[in-house]
Design a protein that fits this description.
Elements lengths: L9 H8 L7 E2 L11 E5 L2 E5 L5 E5 L12 E5 L7 E6 L15 E2 L2 E2 L6 E3 L4 E5 H11 L4 E3 L8 E3 L3 H11 L28 E4 L9 H11 L1 H6 L11 E4 L4 E10 L4 E9 L7 E2 L15 E2 L2 E3 L2 E3 L4 E7 L7 E8 L4 E9 L13 E4 L1 E4 L1
Parallel strand pairs: 13-25
Antiparallel strand pairs: 1-18, 2-3, 3-4, 4-5, 5-6, 6-10, 7-8, 7-11, 9-10, 11-12, 14-15, 15-16, 16-17, 16-19, 20-21, 21-22, 22-23, 23-24
Length: 370
C-alpha cells in the first residue's frame, strides 16, 4: 500500500470520544470484517476508504486559519464500474457563493465546459461518471480551484489531491488501469476487484416495554454511585437518565454524566429487569484503528449516547468542535447476545468550510432485523 506521511489520529480521536485515561479499561477493537479501512491526511486533503473499498476524498485545509472556504469532494464506489461523483458546495457567506455557469477557475483560468448539475436545495454542483473523470484529470496538475475571479472568492487548495487519489486508486485496485484517476494505464476495468460485501449483523429489537423506566434508571444510578463518582459525573445530569428493555430479561440504562458547551456524555449499563441493583457497566467494542499508535483503552463514556429500540442500536456522536466540521459517530447493534459495531464515521482534521457534520464512513455493515 502507498504510505504518505499521515499525522497521528490517536490524540484527536481521544478528545472526540472524551476519554479519561485515569478511569480507562482495556477492551479490544472491533474485528474488521472486509477490507482494511484506510484514513489518510495528505497535505490539504483527507482520504477515507471503508471496509467495502468505497472511498471518499475531500479538501480539508491542513491549517484551518489558511482555509480557502471552498468545498470539493470526490466519491467513488468500489469495483470495475464503481460510480464516481465530484461535488462542489457553495459558501453562503462569500461572493460568489458558487461558481458561475462556466464552472470554477483553475489557477485563474476557465476549465472549459462541464455539464454541472445544480441542486438549489443544497447549493451544490455535481458531476458524475465520465464527466467527473474528465474534470478530475483536468485539475490534477493545478494548485488552486476558485469559485470566481475575485480576490475574496472561495477556493480549494489542490495540494495533496493527486496523492490522495493515488492512494484511492491503490486501495481500490485501479493502479495502471483505464479506471484509475491518478495513474491510469492499459489494464482493462475487468482487472479491478469487486467491492467487498458489507458484513451482515442480525439485530434483535425488543418492544420498548420496560415498566416504570424512570424509577428503574434511578435505581441503577443509586447502585452505581461509585462508578459515576469515578467518572466525575454531575448529579444534575440525572434528568437525562433513561432505561429501555434490551431483551426479555435485561434492560439497557443510559445515565447522564457530563454536559459541555455543545454536547454531553453518558455511561451505559446493563441490568436484569427484575434487579436494577445488579447492573454492570457496558463497554462497546472499539472502532477500527485509524492509526497504529491508537491505544486500546476506553473509559466507557459516550458522547450524546442514545438508544434506538426499533433498530436495537446504541449510538454516539462526538463533535470535535461546535461547528461539527470534524468529529466521529458510531453505532453498535444488539444481536441478542452482544453489541457489535455496525457503523463508524470519522473526520479527525478540523478544517472549517461550508459543510458541517460530514464525516467519511470508515466502517459499515448491513443490518437485518430478526
Amino acid at each position: 500500500m502507498i504510505d504518505p506521511k499521515v499525522p497521528s489520529a490517536a490524540a484527536a480521536l481521544a478528545l472526540l470520544a472524551g476519554v479519561h485515561a485515569a478511569a480507562a479499561t482495556a477492551i479490544p477493537y472491533a474485528p474488521v470484517l472486509g477490507a482494511q479501512p484506510e484514513y489518510r491526511e495528505i497535505k490539504d486533503w483527507v482520504l477515507a476508504c471503508d471496509n467495502t473499498r468505497a472511498c471518499f476524498a475531500k479538501y480539508v485545509a491542513a491549517d484551518d486559519g489558511a482555509g480557502g472556504g471552498g468545498y470539493l469532494s470526490i466519491e467513488r464506489e468500489a469495483g470495475p464500474t464503481g460510480a464516481l461523483e465530484v461535488t462542489i458546495v457553495g459558501d453562503q457567506d462569500a461572493s460568489p457563493a458558487l461558481p458561475g455557469p462556466g464552472g470554477p477557475l483553475l489557477d485563474g483560468k476557465p476549465l472549459g465546459a462541464f455539464a454541472w448539475t445544480r441542486d438549489a436545495k443544497t447549493e451544490s454542483l455535481t458531476l458524475r461518471g465520465a464527466a467527473a473523470e474528465r474534470f478530475i484529470r483536468a485539475i490534477g496538475d493545478g494548485a488552486r480551484l476558485a469559485y470566481g475571479p475575485g480576490k475574496g472568492a472561495p477556493y480549494v487548495s489542490l495540494s495533496g489531491m493527486k496523492a490522495a487519489l493515488l492512494a484511492m486508486d491503490d486501495d481500490q485496485g485501479r493502479l495502471g488501469g483505464v479506471t484509475a484517476l491518478a495513474r491510469p494505464g492499459p489494464k482493462p476495468a475487468s482487472t479491478v476487484p469487486p467491492a467487498t460485501p458489507a458484513p451482515v449483523i442480525y439485530a434483535r429489537p425488543t418492544p420498548d416495554n420496560l415498566p416504570n423506566s424512570a424509577a428503574f434508571a434511578a435505581a441503577v444510578r443509586k447502585a452505581e454511585a461509585r462508578v459515576l463518582k469515578a467518572h466525575d459525573c454531575d448529579a444534575e445530569q440525572a434528568a437525562q437518565d433513561q432505561a429501555h428493555a434490551l431483551d426479555g430479561a435485561n434492560a439497557i440504562v443510559i445515565l447522564g454524566c457530563m454536559e459541555a458547551a455543545y454536547q454531553g456524555t453518558v455511561l451505559v449499563f446493563e441490568a436484569p429487569r427484575d434487579a436494577p441493583a445488579k447492573a454492570h457497566q457496558l463497554f462497546m467494542p472499539l472502532e477500527p484503528r485509524l492509526d497504529p499508535g491508537d491505544s486500546t483503552n476506553s473509559d466507557g463514556e459516550y458522547t450524546e449516547g442514545d438508544w434506538d429500540p426499533k433498530s436495537a442500536a446504541f449510538g454516539q456522536s462526538a463533535k470535535g468542535r461546535g461547528i461539527a466540521d470534524c468529529g466521529s459517530s458510531s453505532t453498535w447493534t444488539w444481536t441478542g447476545q452482544a453489541f457489535q459495531l455496525s457503523d463508524y464515521d470519522a473526520l479527525v482534521r478540523c478544517g472549517g468550510g461550508p459543510v458541517a457534520g460530514e464525516w467519511p464512513t470508515i466502517y459499515r455493515t448491513r443490518v437485518i432485523n430478526r
